[in-house]
Write a structure and sequence with these properties.
alpha/beta; Serine Threonine Protein Phosphatase 5, Tetratricopeptide repeat; Rossmann fold; 2 domains; six-stranded mixed beta sheet; 9% strand
Amino acid sequence: MAMEPPRKKKKKGHAPEAQFRRALDTCSRNGDLAGALELYRAAISDGTHLTTYHFNNILHLCSTSLETLHYPDKPSAIDSSFDIFNRMIADGILPTEATITSMARIAAHRSEGGDLAFDLVKTMKEKYGASPKLRTYGPGLFWYCKNGDADKAYDVEKHMVLNGISPEEPEIAALLDVSVRSGREEKVYEYLLKLRGSVGCVARSTAEILEKWFGSEIAAEAGRLEWDVRVIRDAITMNGGGWHGLGWLGKGKWRVSWASVGSEGRCSCCSEVLACVDIDQKDTEMFADSVASLALARETCSNFRNFQDWLGKHAGFEAIVDGANVGLYQQNFADGGFSLSQLDAVVNELYKRSQGKWPLIILHNKRVRVFMENPSDKELIEAWRAKGVLYTTPSGSNDDWYWLYAAVKLKCLLVTNDEMRDHIFELLGSNFFSKWKGRHQVKYTFAKGVLVLHMPPSYSVVIQESETGSWHVPIYDKNSGELQRDWLCAKR
């Protein structure tokens, strides 16, 4: 009986869908929208099954092509994009966030672009179950800002916030610009404070928007002539320094200058000294509670609660020392080296700098037990204990929770070279953690045995509002050192 010849296996990658994808990817890489549209029409004609990937790829290419000024036939590309989007929905393929973002960008090229783009975003969750991102809001927001429709731009920003999305500098700068052009003094103030909370330094283009505002007649009239200095100062203290948030102070023309700030924080134009900014009181309390709740979940509860109780009765410290970090600095870990003399040097230096106030030393009890076996070390340990400045953490505990909680709770300095990037710090998930570190962390070095403490800077590089109503805005410049940085100084 004759055997049938073996059937040839179809080579992978030769199915129409795969061929279409490869050709489409080539068009995408080359920015060839005309070629991609031709492929799409042929695929529809041939009955090729199109997926979310195919539709998103074509629509993304449409949106990027429309943003290039040299594209020859924008009206046709816009119409084709909406036809493709409608086909996608008709085929039962749900648009994703990427789809809506591309369509919003495309819609923004129409005369009614702002409304079209924003409507797509407002309905995407209900219609398609897709959640917007910051980029999804951009087309509608920027369209309204560019075309001077301030109220609708504010509506977009409000919708963003309701969906848990915070604008970043490009969005805030656009909102500032439309507010300046519309003469909306209260919104300029609002977005200036949002800008302050969003970034440290601003782009020069953003600073130029603010320069335009401070030079306007409306800005000269915005504000009040009388205010309670104590209320302003209390607000600044509550906010962690650097701003009060109670509105424009004073009246009259602003003197706007490009300034520099010296190492001590003094502005070269107005001579005001800038503040070293901390996180505000509410964030400090939240931060301390977060550290405590995580510690209690990972430590033996009774041990950490004992520490909290102890700290509540010994709350006069101005500095906390991460004893292990200091003692192990530049020591031979293989030999278990720990320099108690280094730790003593840090403690004594802090005592001198604070006019006779001892810092709190956090050390694990297993290390302390070793020191107690050496007469000279034992004498030092007992001296610290007699002064009430040594807290030994119990077996099985992690020192990090104790020194971090103490520094946050007491709002004081923390001496450690620990970058605080380990998993326990990642658990905090705090967007103000870096700001807190910049204000409270003291790093150190021992050069040939000589201690050098690197104290927090005397001022913070962040937008600052003074109690007299003046403003200082730092400009981002990756090529300049701190003392060469430009600042926008605005003073009545």
